[in-house]
Design a protein that fits this description.
The complex is a heterodimer of chains A (528) and B (163). Chain A has 528 residues and is mainly alpha-helical. Chain A is built from 24 helices and 2 strands. Classes of the chains: A mainly alpha (528), B mainly alpha (163).
């Protein structure tokens, strides 16, 4: 099947929805969640000239369709992973998409979360008071950028070729630059510029890492890399390549050295965009690093490097969050800390590490997105939050729920995840592991202190001579927070089946032979 | 000792360009210079990428182009580097566009100054005190003028000139 398929499908859709969709319900349909948003993003501007309502609906429609296609592919394929050669050119020369449960899970999360935090929705209320003509001009551009981000993020989850991943990564970067400065304020532009420089330099480092990898192995297909890595990538050169890739992709993953952009961008961008960047894009960057770690760089030093960066991220993030004086930057620094925790979890050996890492990544995805949604209206200093619970009791209650789970208070999911990570670290038992354990415990105490401080402020009695109170969070944001809170509660109650499902997923992700055999089915036949 | 061939020199040059670009990004405060440093680092990375397929004395990888059986360079890195160059140029063009907008609104391209203004604006929008530097001198603004070296050396007559 070729790449011309989506054009046929899109035109076919207008006439007969059922017929065309059942026809493409093969494994190949998995390329559509990447291709359709890309196509829609470029159609957005001309479509907006014809009909603004249609242009506004196009993005959510495409994302819903993408989510539906992924769900169907998942149900069709069952638990077994499958791979798709783009354009019919087989790996290793062609580009493959590899869809196992982890990839499908995150691809689905991309569609759902982009839909929940669709940037156009936040502007709907503001559009009334802002200049309507400017808003009319901006809306299609912003929607197009959001679709580009969704497409690139889905590609990051699915792609099985390192250079293809690099291209998607750059696409996601450019889309996020545009989204950050979309509201046109001067400070957002400065933040974007600094973010752009850091991110572009990270990409240069990643590119150097890719060049070294190619020099050593002669391939960039992840499955083929997995085959040749044990002979060619041991030793310092392989490690240097991993370090460069880790720092390069670590820019988006908010990992330690190149994360200075995080607080500035999240303080200046709109809260929805922050939710997408902190919740979604960072997880996909981590996912890429994890794939590399599992398939290509199996030496223990690589995991240790990830562990060290994770510990530094946890400590710097949590202590900075403790000092933060405004709500968005508190969330931003706390997000750096949480992603450090994700890195620590993934550095644990074997299935436990992948299980814990996936769980903590999903946990952070749910919670931090919802918190940034609440911060949409609560974007002031922490003092301004005093007595905000009176105006918005439900939002304040949800904040407390999410804070408790972030800290890891027992019945909630966060507790089980931290327990899992700590058990894994104790099992590892090396001095570095124990150091990480100490760092996590310390960070938890710090985290509890600053989150409880905010919660306390929310429920304080109002000060009489205070400036006008903040508006309560918008109904849509609270609704999304309710939904995500409900997810959290369901998972907390059904903790055993969730963990079992994640364990199956983690075993599948950690199985290098399965990856290679799925991408090279002929190779398997040959072996038999 | 590493032999001094064309290949070694090119590799060293490529890595050197990346290092120079990185240093430039850290050291420079002028935004346009930072952009140029970025361009340099990107060229270094691209050069390194294209060098990975380089073979001494090989010809262009087109079938029927050179003598049969002659060694060909690896075509894949050339395709990759084309993509990387296009991406790099796109990002740089975007950077220039944002840079022009920033210059129009703030009238400066000094990174430190811009960052200070940004922090100030964030603080004002959030209603919190602007962040102070740990190195900033104590006392109320405006600070008393710092005595000129010349003034200190020749104390009496210059005091009038300073005023």
């Amino acid at each position: 099947m070729t790449l011309e398929l989506p054009v046929d499908l899109l035109f076919g859709l207008n006439f007969d929805l059922n017929l065309d969709l059942t026809k493409v319900m093969t494994a190949n349909a998995i390329v559509l969640p990447v291709v359709l948003p890309l196509l829609a993003a470029f159609l957005m501007q001309p479509l907006a000239q014809v009909s603004r309502t249609l242009a506004r609906l196009l993005g959510p429609l495409v994302l819903t369709l993408g989510a539906w296609i992924i769900l169907n592919a998942w149900l069709d394929a069952g638990p077994a992973p499958f791979s798709v050669a783009i354009g019919g050119f087989a790996a290793p020369l062609g580009i493959v998409f590899y869809a196992d449960q982890l990839a499908l899970l995150f691809a689905l999360a991309v569609q759902v979360f982009t839909l929940l935090f669709w940037p156009g929705l936040g502007a709907l209320g503001a559009a009334a008071k802002a200049d309507a003509a400017t808003e009319r001009q901006r809306a299609p551009r912003r929607d197009a950028l959001a679709l580009l981000l969704a497409s690139a993020a889905t590609g990051l989850a699915l792609s099985g070729d390192l250079f293809n991943i690099f291209v998607f990564y750059e696409l996601a970067a450019v889309a996020s630059f545009g989204l950050v400065c979309a509201d046109g304020s001067g400070r957002a532009r400065i933040a974007t510029l600094r973010y752009l420089f850091i991110s572009a330099f990270g990409s240069v480092l990643a590119l150097v890492g890719i060049a070294i990898l190619y020099l050593q192995t002669g391939t960039l297909n992840l499955a083929q890399l997995a085959q040749v890595a044990p002979e060619t990538l041991q030793g310092p050169i392989g490690l240097a390549s991993f370090a460069l890739l880790l720092i390069g992709f670590g820019v988006k993953a908010e990992l330690f050295p190149l994360n200075a952009w995080v607080p500035e961008v999240y303080a200046t961008a709109s809260a929805r965009v922050s939710a997408l960047l902190a919740g979604l894009v960072s997880k996909l960057a981590i996912l890429v690093i994890v794939r590399l770690l599992i398939l290509v760089f199996q030496q223990p030093e690589a995991s240790q490097l990830l562990l060290v960066l994770g510990v530094l991220g946890v400590l710097t993030g949590e202590f900075s969050a403790w000092r933060a004086q405004d709500f968005p930057r508190l969330l931003a620094f706390s997000s750096i800390g949480q992603l450090g925790l994700v890195a620590i979890a993934f550095s644990i050996d074997g299935t436990t590490g992948i299980l814990a890492g996936t769980a903590v990544a999903l946990h952070h995805l749910i919670i931090k997105s919802a918190l940034f949604g609440l911060a949409n209206r609560w974007s002031g200093g922490l003092d301004a939050l005093t007595a905000a619970a009176r105006g918005a009791p439900r939002a304040a209650g949800l904040f407390v729920l999410f804070a408790l789970s972030l800290i890891g208070v027992p019945p909630l999911w966060g507790f089980w995840i931290k327990l899992l990570i700590m058990a894994g670290l104790v099992q590892g038992g090396s001095p570095l592991d124990l150091l990480a354990l100490g760092a996590i415990l310390l960070a938890t105490a710090v985290e509890a202190h600053y989150l409880f401080r905010v919660a306390l402020r929310l429920y304080q009695p109002p000060v009489p001579d205070q400036a006008p109170r903040l508006a309560p969070p918008a109904r849509w944001d609270v609704g999304v927070a309710y939904l995500l809170g409900a997810c959290l509660m369901v998972i907390s109650v059904a903790i055993t089946p969730t963990t079992e499902a994640l364990r199956v997923l983690a075993q599948q992700t950690g199985d290098v032979t399965l990856y290679v055999d799925t991408v090279f089915p002929n190779h398997l036949a040959h072996k038999e | 000792m590493i032999p001094l061939t064309l290949e070694t020199v090119s590799f060293a040059g490529a890595v050197g360009l990346v290092v120079i670009g990185g240093l430039g990004l850290v050291i420079c405060n002028h935004l346009f210079r930072m952009l140029l440093a970025l361009v340099m680092a990107e060229s270094g990375a691209n050069l390194l990428l294209v060098l990975t397929g380089f073979r001494d004395g090989a010809i262009a990888p087109i079938i029927g182009y050179g003598p049969a059986g002659a060694p060909l360079v690896d075509p894949l890195p050339q395709v990759l580097v084309l993509t990387a160059i296009v991406i790099g140029v796109g990002v740089q063009a975007l950077a220039v566009a944002v840079l022009v907008r920033v210059y129009r609104s703030y009238g400066t391209l000094d990174m430190r100054e811009l960052r200070r203004r940004m922090e100030g604006e964030i603080a004002v929008a959030a209603g919190i005190p602007a962040p102070g530097s740990a190195q900033a001198p104590l006392g109320r603004r405006p600070l008393p003028p710092v005595p000129d070296y010349e003034l200190v050396r020749r104390s009496a007559p210059v005091r009038e000139r300073g005023a």
